[in-house]
Structure formats: structure tokens, C-alpha cells
Amino acid sequence: PYEASLDGDATEVAAELGICELLEGGTTCAVDFGAVHHHDRVFDAADRLGIRFISGRTHMDSGDRVPRGLLEDADRSLEEAERLGLGWHLAAGGRLRYAVAPRFA
């Protein structure tokens, strides 16, 4: 699927478009689960565009119909969540926050 094919640049552009649509509609704060990969780029866009944003990378470690490019080891996924949380939680003066975001099933 589309999500598995996104590289860092495409992820950031997608985040920019979504955040710009929110801001254009008057939304100043959003909670959003992100993609499995390149979640720093989502926060980069949120930081640059000035929205108050709570987000977390998606975790997917199982599922018969989950595309191979989106599955990852649970321990690796949690390590990446910790890295992102340490780097982004309460960033930009508290405007950006990290949240754990397991993928819905």
C-alpha cells in the first residue's frame, strides 16, 4: 500500500499537507497517529508550521494482512518510540508531545 512506499521526504510532505489543511480550517491542536517510518519528519513539519501537536509513530508487529514493509520487531519498535519520545515530547516549549500509538486492528 501507499504508506509502505513513502520515504522520508514524502512522509514530511504528506504531514505538511495534512497540517496545513488543519490550520486552514481553524484547528490549532491535533492528536494524530503517524506512520511506521520517518516519524521525525512528521514532527519536523509540525514544528515548522506551528501547530500544537500530539503524535506518535505507529507500531505494527503482527497481522496476516499487514504489508511486509510496515511490520517490524516489537523490541525495535519500542526502542524507536523511546528515542522519539525523548527527542520530541514537550519540544517547542511544550507545543509538541509524543504519544505511544499502536496501530488499530
Question: How many strands in all?
Answer: 5
Numbering strands along the chain, what is their spatial order in the largest sheet? 1-2-4
Q: Could you say which overall geometry the principal axes of the C-alpha atoms support?
A: globular
Helix proportion range: 40-55%
Show unreliable segments: none
- Give the terminus-to-terminus CA distance: 16 Å
Question: What is the overall number of helices?
Answer: 4
Please outline the major beta sheet.
3 strands, parallel
Mean pLDDT: 93
What is the H/E string?
Answer: HHEHEEHEE
Structural class determined from secondary elements: alpha/beta
Count the domains.
Answer: 1
Q: Radius of gyration in whole Å, from Cα?
A: 14 Å
Report the sheet-strand fraction. 15-25%
Overview of the molecule:
The protein is of the alpha/beta class. The protein has one domain (2-102). It has helices at residues 2-5, 8-24, 39-49, 74-88, and strands spanning 29-33, 52-56, 58-59, 96-98, 101-102. It has a 3-stranded parallel β-sheet with strand order 1-2-4. Helix 3 (39-49) links the parallel strand 1 and strand 2. The longest helix has 17 residues, at 8-24. The chain is globular and about 40 Å long.
Provide a compact summary of the structure.
By secondary structure, the protein is α/β, with parallel strands linked by helices.
Main features:
105 residues, three-stranded parallel beta sheet, two-stranded parallel ribbon, 16% strand
